[in-house]
Amino acid sequence: MEFFGVVIFMSVKRRTIQTVLLALAVNAIVVFPAMADSAVPAIMNLLKSGRLPKERLGTVVELVCKQGNAEDLGYIFGQALKPDAFTSSTRVSALQNLAAATVSRKVKPEGDLAGLAKLIQPGAPKEQRGLQMAAIRLCGLWKVTAASEQLQQVALGKSTDLEFRRAAIDSLMQVGGKTALATAEKLAGSEFPKPLRYLAIAGMTELDLDKATSSAVGVLQETKTDDDPSALFAAFLDQKAGPDKLAAAIDSGKIPLDAARLGLRYMYSIGRSDAALSTALSKAAGINRDVKPLTEKEVQQLAGEVLTRGDAERGEEVFRRVDVSCMKCHAISKAGGDVGPDLSALGSSSPIDYVVKSILFPNQAIKEQYRAAVVITVEGKVFTGIVKDRNGERIVLKEATGRERIIAIDDIEEEEEGKSLMPQGLTKFLSHRELVDLVRFLSLLGKPGPYAIRTTPTIQRWRSLRPIPRELLATVPDDVSFPAVVLENESLNWTSAYGKVDGTLPLGELVTQSRSSILYLQGTVNVTETGRVVFRLNNADGLHAWIDDEAFGSESSIETNLSRGRHAITLRIDTTKRKSRELKVEVVKAEDSEVEFTVVGGR
């Protein structure tokens, strides 16, 4: 313990004894995990003393939630309920860390948890959004029956936004009981918008699978091309008996071709190909599921056709299509999913016949790190994904959606080795020409030419705002309001958008998806060494740019000094004022700058 003595001696002139003791306790947990049990009481004493600096509270709360017992968590919970014990951000993180303790360690606060219901106030101001959402989710996790009425009010509240209603429905279904079932049955009725009906039926699968199945067929019969029933299909796929029950109902009750295709598309996008449901949906969609496998000779013939007739430009369009879902699992130029291999250099290392076989027969050659696991829980839930981490307490699955799902080991009834998350049969959405073009595109990735790996850093993964609030459509935010209405606005919904291999982002795709000629886009740069950076835009027409909260107007070249950490470039684009229908933003060092950075990719 002489090391600790030296630390105290050197630090006492600069910091209070309480801060030093805290540093030692934290060090004991991080550096010497075996000492965690003895370190937590010391941390709790400091926390209860009320003399800890506010900037330290978040770290302390997180450590206690990771290592503390039910009594310790009970104290954290009690403080989080008070409006003035913690800062607003610490209250939110406290509830989130308490949830993590329950999921990963099966530990929750001792005592009465009903007080959580008091944090749920329908119509609460936007600044309480994070706290409200954390409380709503905890109510379901802890099955707080006292919150059923508040959750019902949020779920049924017409003025409440969809994300809150989604969370409230989900939590209410986890709580269960008559209130939950009655709410789900009401929301499943035809008088409610289809997005809510899908959510309600998804929740109903937790309470009464037979009723949910009957309601599902009803709403699917009304589903059209531009609807999104993925929440409904996801819920049935999560239930062990769900796919077979839904398949039987679809067989006996007709659903339209559009609904069936949407169901198939969703199944394949998350790596599921459950036989009964896939067959029922394929039949309803008018797709022949039993396609005869190609022989080796036919594979070679197809490879030859790719060389002579394949169009890589059209193939890239196929690759980017929503119904094909390639980018959910695969990245190019570090942008896209990571539950499948990065394809940036595929063509330079793989012959065409290998590419053909990988698409048509994805289960024949799976690299071990991309082999999926299928986990069945004691509650009959089924989860599929790549194992990202595992210890004696929990397993972490990376699902095809990009979500990391934590499952406690005690909750696992069965675990099976799965296959590729790219299901066989995905090509049923492609014509023969589209398949030929797709293979041609993939076969050129990484080779010299237009699909070579780029050397100039370019923003490849953007976040696109959808839907765009009316006030952001009408005017350009001024310098004063921009941070509040865009950067710090937690109610905004940002979705990923990916550039093409050459780094250009097709704005037409986003206009179609958002149904708006005004776009808001955001890219991220991570700086590891401070210095000046230049953002080079291919075209600044109709564009307003901000780097973090600093406005730069309509400049095509923006030079600015960036400190260490992550920085956002936000663009508002009026596409009606642009001749170019593509956007490209390169990020380079300014002359004589010693800045070091990476452009953030991923999903």
Strands, helices and their partners?
Elements (H helix, E strand, L loop, with lengths): L1 H10 L5 H15 L4 H14 L4 H14 L2 H12 L6 H18 L23 H13 L6 H9 L5 H14 L2 H10 L6 H11 L4 H12 L9 H9 L3 H11 L4 H13 L5 H11 L10 H14 L2 H9 L5 H4 L1 E2 L2 E2 L9 H4 L2 H9 L10 E7 L4 E9 L3 E5 L5 E5 L3 E9 L11 H13 L16 E5 L4 H5 L7 H6 L6 E5 L6 E2 H8 L3 E12 L1 E7 L5 E5 L2 E4 L3 E6 L2 E10 L7 E2 L1 E5 L6 E4 L4
Antiparallel strand pairs: 1-2, 3-4, 3-7, 4-5, 5-6, 8-9, 8-11, 10-17, 11-16, 11-19, 12-15, 12-18, 13-14, 13-16
Helix pairs in contact: 1-2, 2-3, 3-4, 4-6, 5-6, 6-7, 7-9, 8-9, 8-10, 9-10, 9-11, 10-11, 11-12, 11-13, 12-14, 13-14, 13-15, 14-16, 15-16, 17-21, 17-22, 18-22, 21-22
Detailed description of the structure:
The chain is α+β, with helices and mostly antiparallel strands. It folds into 4 domains: 2-202, Alpha Horseshoe (Leucine-rich Repeat Variant), CATH 1.25.10; 296-362 and 424-444, Orthogonal Bundle (Cytochrome Bc1 Complex, Chain D, domain 2); 368-420, SH3 type barrels (Roll), CATH 2.30.30; 461-599, Sandwich (Jelly Rolls). It is built from 25 helices and 19 strands. The strands form 5 sheets. Strands 8, 9, 11, 13, 14, 16 and 19 form a 7-stranded antiparallel sheet that branches. It has a 5-stranded antiparallel sheet with strand order 6-5-4-3-7. A 3-stranded antiparallel sheet has the order 15-12-18, with no helix packed on it. Strand 3 (371-377) and strand 4 (382-390) form a beta hairpin. The longest helix has 18 residues, at 88-105. The radius of gyration is 26 Å and the shape is globular. The model is unreliable at 1-16 and 26-36 (pLDDT under 50).
